[in-house]
Design brief:
heterodimer, A: alpha+beta, Ubiquitin Conjugating Enzyme, four-stranded antiparallel beta sheet, 4 helices, 15% strand, B: alpha+beta, 3 helical TM bundles of succinate and fumarate reductases, five-stranded mixed beta sheet, 52% helix, 12% strand
Chain lengths: 157, 225
């Protein structure tokens, strides 16, 4: 518990320093609980998620960093490796390939990379995965783009 | 067969971290018994090298420094004469304590990964032969995550990085081809330069003070006569 708290505090300081270096990620710690974080990430360019801003919620276990943080999308997203209802993310580093060399910040970077490079062979969203597996890239992109506009685009005016 | 050469075996937990845990206990126990301050100074210098290796590979300090600190703390504590010195019994307790043991295992995993990446050209063919992946992928998926089992690549890298020779006795079928019944062993001897000071020059044989018993899928600690 003490170790995880100390580690998260170091990450907090690092995040303050990295803010400028990584404008695509805005990682914020809960005011009252250092084990709860949220992040706003920008959809990577040249993907159907471009222009969207996606919110992630982190729940950090007491055994962190020996155990991975739990992360899910709060913003709805149409992606083969994200559960359409719960926002759960299928990513190896959040499960068996986790190591303390990862940080909350680098997890965000890995999620952005996953958005750009979906893995349709291990889908959490089968509809999305099936479109890609059957080679219907256009169908996948237009569905994903539609949800980006509907759910992840900043409201104007 | 083993009884001819070894007096005892100490079993370690079988959770994929057994090699690192065996190494940790065996090494700290050796220091505790021998009070070898020269060896402690030597390994500390190597640990500092490992720290620099990780930094030069682009690892962020705060991701590994806690694990390094905890290992160095254990080293100081097994040396007697400090306020924090511990007995053999306390070493046993600590090694069973998940929060200490896991952190030391993670320290070794960082050191191992750093060494493999630093000498990726040397390790590449072995890694490829073992898992068919790149060094980078191997370190990320088979070295750094807790619970990933160790193979000769891990052992070689850890032994080299810390400059600690390790003997592994293989209780598998690797010696059956010869016909007679025998037990194979292999000594992992660090590359020159990292060796304990007493064995610095030339080819005299090194007597590893860490002996592990390998049975397919698991490592335990052996105590030679």
């Amino acid at each position: 518990m003490q170790a995880s708290r100390a580690r998260l505090f170091k990450e907090y300081k690092e995040v303050q320093r990295e803010k400028v270096a990584d404008p695509d990620i805005q990682l914020v710690c809960d005011d009252t609980n250092i084990f709860k974080w949220t992040a706003l990430i920008k959809g990577p360019s040249e993907t159907p998620f471009e222009g969207g801003v996606f919110q992630l919620v982190f729940s950090v276990p007491e055994q962190y960093p020996l155990q991975p943080p739990q992360v899910r999308f709060l913003t709805k997203i149409f992606h083969p490796n994200v559960h359409f209802k719960t926002g759960e993310i299928c990513l190896d580093i959040l499960k068996n390939a986790w190591s303390p060399a990862w940080t909350l910040q680098s997890v965000c970077r890995a999620i952005i990379a996953l958005m750009a490079h979906p893995e349709p062979d291990s889908p959490l969203n089968c509809d999305s995965g099936n479109l890609l597996r059957s080679g219907d890239v256009r169908g996948y992109q237009s569905m994903a783009r539609m949800y980006t506009r509907l759910a992840a685009s900043p409201k104007k005016g | 067969m083993l009884g001819d050469k070894y007096v005892a075996i100490r079993r370690t937990r079988g959770d994929g971290n057994c090699f690192f845990r065996s190494f940790m206990f065996s090494y700290l126990e050796h220091i505790l018994e021998k009070q070898d301050r020269v060896e402690v100074d030597r390994i500390k210098a190597n640990v500092e090298e490992c720290r620099k290796t990780l930094q030069s590979l682009g690892y962020v300090d705060f991701t590994f420094e806690d694990f390094f600190a905890l290992f160095l703390e254990q080293l100081d504590d097994v040396l007697q004469g400090n306020e924090t010195s511990i007995s053999h019994e306390e070493l046993l307790n600590r090694s069973r304590e998940q929060s200490v043991s896991d952190y030391v295992v993670m320290f070794f995993r960082f050191v191992t990964s750093g060494e493999i990446r630093k000498r990726s050209e040397f390790f590449e063919p072995f890694v490829f032969g073992l898992t068919n992946t790149t060094v980078e992928q191997f370190c990320k998926s088979a070295v750094e995550p807790m619970g990933e089992e160790s193979d000769h690549v891990h052992i070689t890298a850890l032994s080299d990085a810390l400059g600690v020779p390790i003997r592994v006795v293989y209780l598998d079928r690797s010696s059956c081809d010869a016909g007679g019944v025998s037990v194979n062993h292999h000594d992992f001897v660090p590359v020159p330069g990292n060796l304990p000071s007493a064995t610095g020059s030339g080819s005299e044989s090194i007597d590893p003070f860490i002996t592990l018993l390998y049975r397919p899928g698991h490592y335990d600690i052996l105590y030679p006569k």
